[in-house]
Amino acid sequence: MYITLFLGLACLLPLLSHANDMRSGVAHESVRSRPAEQDDGRFEKAVGIMNACLNREAESILLAIVENDPLNAGKALFMLGILYGEAGNNEESERYFIRAAGDYPLLKDYALKLLVKMYLNTGTYEKAVDTARQIQNTLLLQYARQSEITALLALKRDDQAIEALAEYIQQFPTDWESKFTLALHWKARGETVKAVALLKNIYVNAVPLSEDALRELKLMKSEVLSREELLIRADSFYQKHNYRRAEAVYKEVLGQMDEHEKEKVIFLTGMCQFRQKNYDTSAETFGLLTNPEALYWQARSFYRRNDRGNFDRVKKEFETKYPGNHQLALLFLMDADEFRRNGSFSDAERNYKEVMERFPQNVEDSLWG
Distance between CA 45 and CA 58 in Å, rounded? Predict the structure, then answer.
C-alpha cells in the first residue's frame, strides 16, 4: 500500500488527486506505528487542509509533528517536502526531502527521486547526478539511471554519459529508445562497429524504432543481415503475431539454410500461413515435411478447409508412421467432434473409443465427447 501511495507522491502529481489516498495511507501507518489511543488525527487533518489548499495551517501541523513527535517525524518531513515543492519553494522542499531521506528509511529513495526531479527541473545537474546515484530501490532504478544520463548530457560530460548509457542498456535491454540514442552517439564518435551492432539489434527485434535503425544502417552501408539475424527478425515478427511479415522473412532466409535447418523454417512458414487462415497454402507447405508436427498441422489445415478426403488421408499416414504419437489422439478427437456435429454418432463413438484405448492421457477428453 505504501509503495503505491508514495510512488504517486514521488511522481509529483497534483496533491488534489492524491489527497484521499494520502489520508488513508497516513492514517493506517499511524495506527501501525503508534497506539490507537494516541492517534489524534493530526495527519488526517493536515492532509485535509492540504487538499483544501490551506497550506499554512498544514505546514503548522506538520512542523509541530516534526518538533514534538519523533516517531512520526519522518513522514511529516516527507510531506513538508511535497508541500513546499507544490508551493514552488524549492529551497525548503529540498531541505525537507534531504531530512526525510535521512530520517525515514521507508521513503528514502522516494524522497531522493523527488529531489532528482527537482534538480533536473531547476537545472541543478551536478546535484541530480549525485542524488540519482544514491537511489537503490529496484522500482526506481530505471528512473534514477535515466535521470543520471540526462544530467550528464546536460553537463556535456559526454564520455561519462555514454558509459552510463552503455551500462543502462545492459540493465534495461528493452529500452529501445535508449539503445537508439547510444547507437547515434557511437556513430557520431566514429565507433562504427558498436553502432552497427546496436542498430541491428534494434532492427532484428522488430520494434517500433526498427525502420529508424534501418535508415541509419543504410546510411552506414551496413543494412545487409546475416542468416542468423534474419531468423531473429522473423522470429520477432512471429512472436508479435505479425505473421505476414514473419512469413516474408522466413521465405527470404530459406534459401540460405542447409537441409537440416530448412525444416524448421519451412514449418514456421506453414504456421504463419495457418495463422493467417491461408489453409490451402499452409497444407502445401506442411506437406513438404514428414515429421509428426508437420503432418498434424497439415491435417488441421485440411480440417479447417473442410477437406474430408485429404484430412482422412493425412490422418491415416500419421497413424501408419507415428502410431503412438500424442498428436494422433488429437486428430481422432477432432474427427470425432466433427462426426458428432454431423449426427454420425457411431463414427464419433468409434473415434472416442480409439483414444480411450490407445491414449490414456486423453481419456478425459474422450469421456467429455
Answer: 8
Report the predicted TM-score, pTM, of the whole model to 2 decimal places.
0.73
b/e 67-76 (16+ beta carbons within 10 angstroms → b): eeeeebbbbb
Mind listing the pLDDT tens digit for each residue in 114-137?
A: 999 999 999 999 999 999 999 999
Give the contacts of 84 (CB within 8 A, at least 6 positions apart): 90, 92, 93, 96
Dist. CA 294–CA 173, nearest whole Å: 35
**Does residue 217 contact residue 200 with C-beta atoms inside 8 Å?**
yes
Tell me the per-residue pLDDT of 184-211, one tens digit each, with 9 for 90 and over: 999 999 999 999 999 999 999 999 999 9
Per-residue model confidence as pLDDT tens digits over 339-368: 667 666 666 666 666 666 666 655 544 444
Cell numbers linked to 88? 514552488
What is d(CA 184, CA 168) in angstroms, rounded to the nearest whole number?
Answer: 15
DSSP codes of every residue in 125-143: HHHHHHHHTT---TTTHHH
Rg (CA), the chain: 32
Among 246, 306, 252, smallest CA distance to 275 is for 246
CB 210 within 8 A of CB 203: yes
Cα–Cα distance measured from residue 142 to residue 367, given in angstroms and rounded to the nearest whole number: 52
- What Cα–Cα distance (Å) separates residue 222 from each residue in 69, 114, 201? 66, 43, 13
Provide the residue type at 265 as one letter.
V
d(CA 351, CA 207): 46
Decide: 70 and 38 in contact? Cβ < 8 Å.
no
